[in-house]
């Protein structure tokens, strides 16, 4: 006799279970399987980048890089993925907890731009922090918190095309950091999520108004071990 609790083939519950199982499998990838998936996506394992480690330390706290991957686009744009281990913390019962892990995904820009940060803070946090920039786009203003020292620059960069694009990725927190766009999150990176974040950041880069690069961009020369564009074999 069929189990009445098992999902009926072709039914809604069967579809939900299938999606759930795929997500669980993705989140519990063996390191070797994750490496294969990253390689299939065209990324190469590279030495940790000093600059991106510095960004991780600024976002969280000083820690140690675990591993880093990079991908070069035909237009010389480079995407990087950094997994970063933070210092272990003590649990309330006095036993040491495992070291927390975070990940960063970055996409390079043609020029260095002033800093700008977009987070998914709640309205309560926005109220407590203050200094939130409202852009007159209700859906975006409700979902995100924007911080920038130059309001005119922020409004120029976050024009309607960029806002509408970012709203497709409501759980993404990101910033303009030097010559890169950087997104971050907690936990080990998942290849599928990496692909989504890279797509989101590239979409932002593609939608930057030329006037922003012209009026606010500046060229900088970084040491080879700090420039994210020098990470992929064959890049020159």
From TrEMBL:
Superkingdom of the organism of origin: Bacteria
Report residue spans for region: Disordered: 216-236
This chain's protein is named DUF3137 domain-containing protein
Organism listed in the record? Kribbella albertanoniae
> According to the entry, what is the taxonomic lineage of the organism?
Bacteria, Bacillati, Actinomycetota, Actinomycetes, Propionibacteriales
